[in-house]
Amino acid sequence: MFIADAWYMGAWADELADAPVSRRICNQPLVLYRSKEGEVATLYDSCCHRGAPLSVGSVIDQGLQCGYHGLVFGNDGVCVHIPGQAQIPRKARVRSYPTVEKDQMIWVWMGDPEKADPALILDYPFHNDTGNWPHSHGMYEIDTTYQMMMDNLMDLTHLGYVHAKNVGGKAATLVEAEMDVITTEKGVDVKRWMPDCEPPPTYLKCVDLPEKIERWQEMEFIAPSAVLQWTGAVGKGQGAREDFSKRVGGFSMRLYHFATPVTETSCYYFWSAAHNHLLGDPDATENLRKEVEIALEEDKWIVQAQQDRIRETGDDWLVDVRSDKARVAMRHALKKMEAESGPLAAGPVVTDS
Ligand code: FES
Ligand SMILES: [Fe+2]
User: Fold this and answer.
1) pLDDT for 240-261, tens place per residue?
2) Which residue, 84, 137, 203, 236, is most buried by CB atoms nearer than 10 A?
């Protein structure tokens, strides 16, 4: 079941240039585009004439033009032009979805449009603060449920096994981390602390660090499927756990994660990696991107392999262990949101008007 009453990330803002973009969210085919006036919009991706995908059309001055016989649609999904005909039938329209551009991202609301409050969209100002947090970003289409991507992020003990050679490092360090898990109004806050450990390989590739460091991993899960992560390290004994002003001079990155359901068993995984170390060094952003992409490929590999097995067996026989604490809290938050959600805005037309 999909959570309909939610803002889902549909694209990076810079993906919407001249051409429309095809996406499938909550198993609905969608076309996202930017009008000539610069407004972003999302329509059901099928033309009301003969059903062709609108995403293979083009953006023209009057709206989105179907690439088959040239019908043109406004951002509200209403047909505004039919070649060779002055009269436009009342039913010539397709469903439009509330769409908002914020913090370099495009957000689409998949439930009741009346409930689509832009104030509910998460804040991520770091994407705009390129002076202090230069970043790179991307998206993977992953053959696993969005919930399983969230599971992956909520149990960071996997870093010592899946990512030992890059962002992880020693498994024992990750397993023994002190961890606070707090349920919040929006989801779950997770704070992990490793006060006396060795730097993992990625940190050493990016910056100089002493042999012993204090390391933090702080994550904010926002239902249904965002994780805002701040991870870093400075030399051991600085007291950076409580005093954020001490979190400079070492390694410091913010990872943004959002998993948007494509089908019941696949998702788009949007990510960005920003850093606060080596500001002004043009190579620093690129070096971090390379390291993060290696780790994300490893995540993709393990979660897809996991999904393959669970497809055969189901998941009701799986056992929770100590490291699942944050994951279990996250799943509770999802269940709550699922119970409160209304139905999906599904299909090419709005039937109740
Ligand atoms: S199918 Fe779109 S104009 Fe004919
Ligand atoms: Fe991972």
Assistant:
1) 999 999 999 999 999 999 999 9
2) 203
The Å distance, Cα 24 to ligand 1 centre, comes to 20
> Is 227 within the bounds of a domain?
yes
At residue 351, the pLDDT reads: 73
Residues 95 and 218 in one domain: no
Tally the domains of the chain.
Answer: 2
In a domain, residue 350? The reply is no
What is the average pLDDT across 146-164? 97
Domain final residue pick, 60, 85, 120: 120
The answer on 35 and 155 residing in a single domain is no
Q: From atom 4 of ligand 1, which residue's Cα is the shortest distance away?
A: 69
Structure tokens at 42: 């999302």
Protein residues with CB under 6 Å of any ligand 1 atom: 47, 49-50, 52, 66, 68-71
Question: Would you say the C-alpha torsion 152, 111, 123, 286 has a positive or negative sign?
Answer: positive
- In this predicted structure, the answer to whether residue 143 has a pLDDT above a threshold of 90 is yes
Atom from ligand 1 closest to the CA of residue 51: 1
Expressed as residue numbers, the domain containing 76 is 7-120
Q: 217-248 pLDDT, tens per residue?
A: 999 999 999 999 999 999 999 999 999 999 99
The DSSP result for 44-104, as a single string, is ESS-TTT---GGGSEEETTEEEPTTT--EE-TTSBEEEBTTBS---TT-B--EE-EEEETT
Q: Is residue 346 in some structural domain?
A: no
Asked if residues 332 and 325 have their Cβ atoms less than 8 Å apart, the reply is no
pLDDT tens digits along 77-132: 999 999 999 999 999 999 999 999 999 999 999 999 999 999 999 999 999 999 99
Last residue of a domain, one of 83, 100, 120: 120
